[in-house]
Amino acid sequence: MGGVTTDADAADAAEPVDHEGRTPLDRATAAFGDGRPVLIHDAADREGEIDLVYPARAVTPAALARMRNDAGGLVCVALADGIAEAWDLPFVQNSLDHPAAADHDLGYDERSSFSLTVNHRDTYTGITDADRALTVSELGRAAADFEEYDFPSAFRAPGHVHLLRGAPDGLADRRGHTELGLTLAAAADLPPAVAVCEMLVDAEGALSPTAARAYAERNGLVYVEGSSIVDRLG
After folding, report:
1. Domain count, the chain
2. Please, are residues 33 and 188 in contact by the beta-carbon 8 Å criterion?
3. pTM of the predicted protein model
């Protein structure tokens, strides 16, 4: 893997149909519905990053190892705003009484989606592939019936999995990987909980769209532009 994201890469990110007439978004939705990961590029003028995205409930220790080894970013679980409200999950910036939480200016967005960090209570340290996979997959299963779920009895904070709180109106409010992944989950008729991890390159930063498409092809995965998700599902 190699190469950083550039505007030229994004402009060249053509989305041709396959021999069955399916667009990358069609294929990504089908793959996601089958529990397989997809690669999502947000936008060249935003973070300019590609995330490896899984349905949260489908994350296994092997999937967690892939996020850790092949992607290398931060393993997070994005939850729909309604779930965060039901479980009383705050935006962490609003909960910090510390000078470092003030004037949180971001070059790519108006705010961060970060909420609590958690471990499932059945984990030990919480950091191993098996432990984090348990935390992530249980979050995905809990999201299917979140209104009846006793979140504090199953999870403790702080932990080793970062929770992200989706914008209330989804892509109409914000176009980050949090909202893109949750929108894809809705299109695939899955619970609103997705695992996301940035794809990075040693010493270079974010993996470029060109390199990400090559990785997807080598591994039988689907790469999709965030603009396609916004245009068709936003």
Report:
1. 1
2. yes
3. 0.88
